Each structure stands twice: as C-alpha cells, then as structure tokens.
C-alpha cells in the first residue's frame, strides 16, 4: 500500500496534511488490495505470468503512463490551490504525485530491514523522474500562459509522449534516453571539453615521440657493430674447424687404441711362460 499511495503520502507530508488521508478513498484501497492479492497469491502465479507476456506488459505500462500524466496534472492544480505564488511547490507537488511511489522505496526497504545505498532514488535519478519533472514544468508554464494550447490538448501531448517513450524503452531495451544529452552538456559546462582536448593533445604528442626516427649516433653505432660482427664471422671461417668436425678424429683415436690392445693380447706366449707350463 505504501507503493500504491506513495505519491499521495509524500504530497500530504509536503503540504502538512494528514499522511494517511489518501486511505479514505475506499474504492482505490479495495482496487489496490485486489490487484496485490491476484499478483502475489493467485494459484500457480498465473496472473503474474500473464502480465509478463509482452503485449499485456505493454498495455499495462501504457495505462500506467496515462495515469502518471493525469496525476502530474492533479498535483500541479493542487499546488496552485495551496501555494499560488510558489512555482517550486507547484512543480514539486506535481513531481511527487507522478513518481512518489519510486521515492517510497527507501521507506519500504527500511521497514523490511533492507538498506541499499546503491539503489537510493535520491542519488540515482532515473528516466521516469526526469520526464515527470519536465512534464510538471510544462504544466506550470501552461498555467502562466506561456504555451498556447488548451489544457486537454496539452494533456494528450504529454500522455502520448509518455506512452511512446515507455513502449520504445521496453521494445528496444533502452535505459535512459537523456544520457547522451547529459554527457554533452556536462562536457561543455563542467570542464569535460578542456579535459578531452588536453588528453587528445598528450596522446598525439606521445604518438609522435614514438614514431620519430633514431639519431645519427645510433645509426653509426649500429653500422660499426654490424661491421665488427662481419669481421668476427670471417675470422671464425678461416680458423680451425669447429668442434663438430673434431668428432671423427677422436673416434679414430679410440679405434686405434682398442686395436693396439687387441694385438697385445694376441701375441704368442714367451718361452718362460712355456717353461712354467
């Protein structure tokens, strides 16, 4: 219930009204209760699985965006009724009416015992908050007669834009269409352009230093080293044969020594040996 009536609760908190005054609408409370029960406790999760089908999901999200555009308009009119000379309060009430359920997440997580600073909506502003803020500003500008359109046509334009953007984001998997514009503005206004130019200049300077030809001293050193290497190669060619060529001589010496041993063993016995026999 906190998520379903988050916008009304936060608006009541801002204006100093009773926080749970929104629960006096029995029809809205009964509708929210039935939807909550069917989504969470229907047998085999059939309703939840049915809502996850892409065409049904697109229909539900489109109806949600229509309701969001209507709530923003109601919030602007409520702010004009309570604070007719305060544009900040009017725009803030319109914003809270449209996306109040998103800002009730920290409260619901705190009640459940979960605290995640990474998912804090006050720090990580999502696309829904941005587009709702722009819609609230447009509604207030229409109140100041800055937009020459009837209120019904303006509501139709904002509603169609909300539905179109939501369907496009679901089908194409987009997260935030405002990110490219935000990056461009940040680079222009917050020093991003100067940093980009500086990094590009340093990168080009490092590349040119790497591609410069070597010095003349290095060239002379390399030529002298190559000539000395050639001289060493020529001297080694005219000298004695390598160790591999000396292998047959060692083999021959070993063969000769073994032959001498065999002839010594084959000599006839001496007369003294015969006498001993």
TrEMBL record:
<dbReference type="GO" id="GO:0005267">
    <property type="term" value="F:potassium channel activity"/>
</dbReference>
<feature type="region of interest" description="Disordered">
    <location>
        <begin position="205"/>
        <end position="277"/>
    </location>
</feature>
<feature type="transmembrane region" description="Helical">
    <location>
        <begin position="125"/>
        <end position="142"/>
    </location>
</feature>
<keyword id="KW-0631">Potassium channel</keyword>
<feature type="compositionally biased region" description="Polar residues">
    <location>
        <begin position="241"/>
        <end position="260"/>
    </location>
</feature>
<dbReference type="GO" id="GO:0042802">
    <property type="term" value="F:identical protein binding"/>
</dbReference>
<feature type="compositionally biased region" description="Low complexity">
    <location>
        <begin position="215"/>
        <end position="239"/>
    </location>
</feature>
<comment type="similarity">
    <text>Belongs to the TMEM38 family.</text>
</comment>
<protein>
    <submittedName>
        <fullName>Trimeric intracellular cation channel type 1B isoform 1</fullName>
    </submittedName>
</protein>
<feature type="transmembrane region" description="Helical">
    <location>
        <begin position="154"/>
        <end position="174"/>
    </location>
</feature>
<keyword id="KW-0813">Transport</keyword>
<keyword id="KW-0407">Ion channel</keyword>
<keyword id="KW-1133">Transmembrane helix</keyword>
<keyword id="KW-0812">Transmembrane</keyword>
<keyword id="KW-0630">Potassium</keyword>
<dbReference type="Pfam" id="PF05197">
    <property type="entry name" value="TRIC"/>
</dbReference>
<keyword id="KW-0633">Potassium transport</keyword>
<dbReference type="GO" id="GO:0012505">
    <property type="term" value="C:endomembrane system"/>
</dbReference>
<keyword id="KW-0472">Membrane</keyword>
<dbReference type="GO" id="GO:0016020">
    <property type="term" value="C:membrane"/>
</dbReference>
<dbReference type="InterPro" id="IPR007866">
    <property type="entry name" value="TRIC_channel"/>
</dbReference>
<keyword id="KW-0406">Ion transport</keyword>
């Amino acid at each position: 219930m906190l998520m379903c009536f988050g916008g009304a609760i936060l608006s009541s908190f801002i204006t100093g009204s009773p926080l749970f005054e929104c629960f006096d609408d029995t029809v809205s409370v009964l509708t929210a209760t039935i939807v909550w029960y069917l989504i969470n406790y229907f047998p085999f999760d059939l309703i939840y699985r049915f809502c996850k089908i892409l065409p049904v999901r697109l229909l539900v999200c489109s109806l949600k965006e229509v309701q969001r555009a209507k709530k923003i308009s109601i919030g602007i009119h409520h702010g004009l009724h309570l604070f007719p000379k305060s544009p900040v309060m009017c725009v803030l009430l319109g914003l809270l009416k449209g996306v109040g359920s998103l800002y009730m997440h920290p409260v619901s997580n705190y009640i459940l015992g979960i605290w995640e600073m990474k998912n804090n909506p006050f720090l990580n502003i999502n696309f829904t908050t941005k587009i709702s803020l722009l819609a609230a500003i447009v509604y207030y500008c229409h109140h100041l007669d800055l937009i020459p359109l009837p209120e019904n046509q303006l509501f139709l334009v904002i509603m169609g834009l909300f539905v179109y953007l939501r369907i496009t984001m679901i089908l194409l998997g987009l997260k935030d269409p405002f990110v490219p514009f935000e990056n461009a503005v940040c680079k222009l206004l917050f020093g991003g352009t100067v940093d980009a130019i500086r990094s590009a200049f340093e990168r080009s300077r490092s590349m040119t230093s790497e591609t410069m030809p070597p010095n003349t001293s290095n060239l002379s050193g390399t030529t002298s080293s190559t000539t000395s290497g050639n001289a060493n190669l020529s001297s080694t060619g005219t000298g004695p044969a390598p160790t591999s060529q000396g292998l047959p001589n060692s083999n021959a010496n070993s063969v000769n020594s073994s032959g001498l041993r065999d002839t010594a063993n084959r000599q006839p016995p001496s007369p003294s040996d015969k006498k001993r026999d």
